[in-house]
Structure formats: C-alpha cells, structure tokens
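User: Structure please.
Assistant: Input sequence and predicted structure:
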Amino acid sequence: MGRLSPRVMNDPLTNRGTAFTTAERDRLGLVGRLPDAVLTLDQQARRAYEQLHRQPSDLAAYIDLEQLHDRNEVLYYRLLTEHLAELLPIVYDPTVGEAVKTYSHEYRRPRGVFLSIDRSRDLRRSFEELDLAPDEVDLVVVTDAEQILGIGDWGVHGIQIAVGKLAVYTAAAGIDPARCLPVVLDVGTDNETLLNDPLYLGVRHSRARGERYDAFVAAYLDTVSTLYPDALLHFEDFGAGNARRFLERYGERCRMLNDDMQGTGAITLAAVRSALKVTGAPFREQRVVVFGAGTAGVGIADQLREAMVRDGLDSDDATRRIWLVDRPGLLLDDMDGLRDYQRGYARPREEVEGWRDASDARGASDARGGVGARGGFDLLTTVRNVRPTVLVGTSTVRGAFTRQIVEEMARHVERPVIFPLSNPTEKIEAMPADLLRWTGGKALTTAGIPVDPVEIDGVRHVIGQANNALVYPGLGLGVVVSRAERLTSGMLLAAADAVAGQVDGGGPGAPLLPQVENLRASSAAVAVAVVRAAVDEGVARVTPDDVVQAVQDAMWQPEYGNEPAPSG
C-alpha cells in the first residue's frame, strides 16, 4: 500500500482529506501524503467557510464550492447544511444561472451523465457503465436545458442545473448523494453564442425537435425506468410545451416530478392556503387571475383548481374560477396560437362580450392585445371585470402589477392576495413593499425573491419567499421513503398543506410561508405528509409503522462514517 489510493483520495464520496486519522492513513497507504495535523469535520467546515468568504463574487464562491464538491462530498454538504439559507442562492438560483453561462470555459471535471442525441445508441451503456444496481438509485434529475431559469437555451451547460438541484435535495432533505444522478439530454441548442464558441462542449447543431427528439426522450425514460425502477425521475427546465406534454404522457406510468409545473404550483398553493387562514374564506369561493400563462402559470392554475375540487367544486366549475392572462391578453377560446396546455383555461369569447374595457376609464384608445386577428383583454380590464380575490404573477414582466391594477383589485376585496412570483428582481411584477403601501397594509403577499420585512403603519410585515425548495426536497424524500408507484395530486396537495401548516398566518404581518433557515426540518415535515398521502391513496409500496421515524432514518447526514476500504 505504498501508493496513494485514487479510490480513497480521488473519490469525493470517500475522501476525507486532513480528517483521515493517523491509523487510517497507515492502513490506506496515505502515510506522507497529507500534512501531519488531523482535523475534525467541524474544523474543516470552518476553514472552508472562511475560504468561501474570501471569494470576490457570487460566481467565484460558486466555483469554490463546486471545487470542494469535487474533492470531498461530506465536507461540501456539511458546509451547505450549516449555512443553507446563506448558500442556497449560491448553489442554485440566481448564481447557478451565471455558472451555466460560463460552463464550457470554467469546465474542470465532469459530474453527471451526458447523453448526446447524436449518439443515442450509447444511452443505455452510459448508465450501465456506472455499475449501479437497480436498488442503488433513488433520484435522477434530468434537463434538456431549453428553458433554464430566466436565461433560455444553454445546451449541454444545463448539467449545472441538474447538479444544483440535487445539491438542494441533499442539503434540504438528506437524500443520499451517492444515490442520485444528474443527467443532461444534449439535443443541440439554438443559442448562436454557444454554436459559434470554439470551446463549447455540447453537440454543435440546432436543437432537435419532432419525432427524433420525442424518441430520444422516450428511450431515456424507458432506460432509467428499467435500470432504476425505484427512482424518482425529476424533469427540470424543459421547454414550456414539452414539460407539460411529457408529464401528461408519462406521469401515470413513470415516477415523475416536474418542478417547474408541480413544485411551483404546490408552493403557490401553500401560500394561498396560508392567506385563506387570514381571510377565512373557503377555497371554492376564490376567483384567481394568473398573469403569465407559461409552464409555471398553468402549473399553478392546475394546483389551485385541484384544491377547489377538493373543497367541493367539480372540475368544470373550478376551471371557470381561474382566468389566465398572457402578454397578448386574457386567453380566449378563439385565439390563434394557443398551446395545448392553455386551451383548458381559455374563456369563451361570448363570456366577455359585455365586459367593460379598461380604456373606458383611463382614456386609452385600446386596452386589448392580440394573438392573431383577435386579441384578449389586458390585465387591468380582466381585474376590473373578474374582481379576483387572488392575483398571481409568473410573467417576468417587471412592474406589471401597477398601482392602478392593485388599487382596482383592492376596491372589491378586503384582503387582496397578491403574489408577484417572477424572479430575479428585475423581472418581478411588483415589490411587496409597494403592494402593501398601495393597499394600506391589507395585501397578503409573498414573492419569488428574498425580500426584507416592510413596516406599514407600525406593523412589521415579514415577506415569505415562494421558493420551490420548500416543497420539492421533502416531496422527493417522501417518494423515496414510500417507494410510491407515481406522484399523485393528493401527494402534491399534502406537500402544500404541510408547508402551509408551518406558519401561523393569524398575527399581523406574519409571513405566509416558512423561512428557509429551517429548511431541513421543514422538508422532513413535508416528507411525512407525502408518505401518509401515498399510503392513503394506495400508491405506496412501503408502509412504515412509524412514518416520522422512517423519514428521519432515511435522511443522510453529512458525517464521516465507517473507514473507507483500502484499494489497490
């Protein structure tokens, strides 16, 4: 054992660096390979935190963390879990977006599975050569990177999104990183900057679409479902049309989660439930306007509709209580260019024939936009005629919730529920401070970005962040513990209710969502609710005697365990 063992020192899952004891160094052939001092994991974490704080920018901090991730997985997750609220914006949104853009130029070592559509014959082999047994994978996060966060199509660079998502799963919910796989489907890119970059690492052609693309995704799902039958298959940042299409096509036969639709919908549902604790109104009586009818907006509409159904409405009646507005205006059934997933929410043209146009009141020549030859009413007109109790923004249109719109809503609703969920800050529909000022402190609000507390008339309003990380890690852990056959609407509702149950919305200025500082405990509570829902709905393949203990036992801890085995 005179040589350094690559499997011990070069594998981040087994490397302990200066924490290897003297006895371990002797046994593993590491004598003379490390400085003399033996540090504890806590000491290593303190040093790593100090090094992190010397970085000159968030992107530099991200790179520093990823280098640690590549060296020592336990230390990386100890640092992340101890400072999760602080580091979450570094390892994921918004900093990961900057890291995605520079991936080919900052590339150091591979992490994940890279599947090229030009080498589809290698798809199964790419997984088989990982040498993982069917019961050794709990979670696979996959992206085709067509619609990353708010920055669009970034081709193979999307692997960073899958890596970042899994880091949050592990730090927040304790899903074992050794049992997780990040995957990118490299189907090309329409990003000209990448295609013209000589250092770009992905396949160098425009994005594949149509039958070839669908066949590649189908082959991927068939392969991972066969090789890892217990794994949750998480889809991330697919294009709007594809995200919903694949969920509808495969969701009943694969253990799938689309966070852009289902996770966003669940966290919004949790915030609405908290708001209704304050107003005392039943869910079935809500009138909801969603501004932004893309993947997230329609996913939110789906979750809110399901909650109305659970509260006594039939599906048609619930759908009629939701209005979707996009940049061209209110979605109407005779519009050209509607996507399949939008059609169910498009209003009949005859329903709005008698509407009063907002231009009647403000002197504008026309308040309607257009899709094709016939347009829909704008947001102000919709709010004036619908008189919504809930207004949700996923439009990425900064300032879309104007003072006029908010005051119009507040004229008809005592406690207007207003959620500007777009991020980052330059894309938010309105700042919560403005919403509170315009409504005299009566608005019940949460936001898609971190926001400082706001004081109005002596009341300190704490603004919860509608961060999907409050939902999807615990949701995933619940699926892992229950081995659920699929993810059901009841499990999503249970996750939302578990999040809402962690806040007391009764006090003046209280947040509608829990703070991320307690994310690990929050995720455990969500997981318990999800397991129980899976059992109740008959999709759980494992029914724990003690659900709370089963969840705790399943949560991986960032600690050095048994001594690594020597290798030659």
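Residues 5 and 568 are 6 Å apart (CA to CA).
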